[in-house]
Amino acid sequence: MGYFFIPLPQPLFKDDYSTVILDRNNQILRVFINRTEQWHFPPDPELKIPVKLKQAVLVYEDKYFYDHPGINPAAILRALYQNITTGEVISGASTLTMQIARLMNPKDRTYFNKILEIFQALKIEIKYSKEEILKLYLDHAPYGGNIIGYQAAALRYFNVIPNKLTWGQAAMLAVLPNAPGLISPVSNPQILIDKRNALLKNLMQKHIIDQETFKLACREEIPDRSIPLGFSAPHLARHLKMNAKRAAVFRTTIDKKLQDEIENIVAMHGNFLETQGILNASALIVETQTGKVAAYIGSDDFFDDQAKGQVDGVMAPRSSGSILKPFLYALSMDEGYILPQTLIKDVPSYYGAFSPANADMNYRGIVPASQALIQSLNVPAVRLLYQYGYEPFYFFLKEAGVSTLFRHYEDYGLSLILGGAETNLWEMAALYRGLANYGKFEPIHLFTKANTNQKYQKNLISPGASYLTLNVLNELHRPGSEAYWQQYQNQWPLAWKTGTSYGQRDGWAIGVNPQWTIAVWTGNFDGQGNANLSGSGCAGPILFEIFNYLPKDPSLSWFIKPPDDLDKIEICMDTGYLAGSYCTHKIMADAPVHMKPLKICPYHRQIFVNHTEDKQVCSLCWHNIDHHSINKLIYPPDVSQYLRKNGQIVESLPPHLSSCPAMALGNPLQIIYPQERSSLWIPRDFDGALQKINLKAAHQQKDCQVYWYLDDNYKGCSKEIHEMALSLDKGWHELEVIDEAGNRNRVKFYANLRE
Question: How far apart (Å, rounded) are the C-alpha atoms in residues 449 and 441?
Fold first, then answer.
């Protein structure tokens, strides 16, 4: 009956342990002290007790450990006799089990408490196996100062994991808990050496070690101080500690060697960027195939309080800039809107009050989709998003794992593709890894036992579209000396993309190949913009230095073409659309097998001309005229205008036969700005005077004159470049342009005055 009245806490020891962060090879990244400011590693049931330490402890503390039931009656009687005869406590006769009873609830050393420990020890022996009891003792024994447990002791004194202890080190740890305050390596090293050597001699006499091992172990030096534990990946370690429900050992996928070296790379670049007024940089390295995070750099200097270095730049939401564009282009391929060769208009475009502009404030007229992505042009991207739809693109990002989009998709609108979205380095690395895994998206992970089951992968982009997009991204111009990477041997391709947010607050660079996914962010954690900041100029060099440092697997140098997901289709060589009957040059191109049908080339047209081909004719005027058909590449007026402005020779339609009663096919004249029923704000100058508004038109004919009328009042004419700066009053206006052949275009718009 007394068994049930013996107090025995459950669990035996309070749950007050250090939080331990380990890398993939069980090297320490960081250890946090517990609530009582002790270094005390959590017990690990999978960690076996080192044989050397086990034998040393049993010989020194409890040589009959496996034979007694928790107490040693002979030792207790002997200790009682010695204590009574001498009048002082000479021996406690404590077994390891009795020491556990004392350690789990430290109390004054009285006979009553000793009797209580005896009964508690008996109960512990009933509830636990001998191996569990030995482990409980080693996990909670004091080793001097604020070091508790053999795991912390092995690392703080010798900087080794327990199973790497030498005989001399194991013997020192065996004798140290006996009186850690009296025989500390720091305060009384000689006493500790004497006790250690005596134990080693005893081990030799019991034939556990030989004489040579004994001599070598005795010559080992005693540490004169405790060794600081690791301090790698501080942002990650703190993140895990803060989000942990209880103290634990976190076995992460981080590679400490890579982590430390990449921290140095980012810090080196951070020092240079600081001279430019750019104070922060972050990086994340992920294994592309497994999703394991190999390195996690939250900032270039964790201890730089002035630059807010303890902010975790990997998890902090920032403006996405242009880094989402590759996914829009890949999705648009699957929808049948484009292939890499397909031309996209790059002309002034207006969507209500929103008018996107390229970073260089220039327009190219029309540009292949591949070049639009390589040059990160904003106008083609917005036009493509308008065609694809910002709502489905928003939900694609959500489904692919972007959790930082906290607003409704209508609140983002078309700016979603230009940096209007919030995202972070962690999720962008996962997104690019999904593209590199042929459109299969799943979370990246930090723990060695993470679930990587295939059922969690989401195939949101076809392998064919992913592959074509990755090939385009490999053509981006690399920064600095990396620009000539293809001219050197042993150089590795990398699909990469940069992004710079509005106001130059964020500079991104993300690169992928089949082996590595590298994501880099640069900027200021306080959100301050900087004219020197750009993704290519600031984050790009960090990206490529990291990439050059990382180990390379030749079998994973570049992506394998997915043969079952790409097919050959015939496209127009000039426009990149599906070849039509009027296209003069046709080529075969790769296209995703399951993409929706690509649009037939809209720019090649068949016209009828006279025998000299200088006049168009039609059925109303070709009678008694030698005529024939020809195919021509004809761009819209706005495209032709900007192509000519950029020095390109643009093919134009010959004028229609003047005697023909019919008009030429289509209207070659078009007003570009303003658009029909748009609302304009008239800006004021610094002195308050109203400024003029630059109105724009375009014509297919290069040398054709255009005549301008505002509210039926003639305002002038233009040639080649059709622009007219006019003063406007508040209210509705009607703009009309007329060319020499009588073609005209008219829009109605409203002018507002800024107060």
Answer: 19
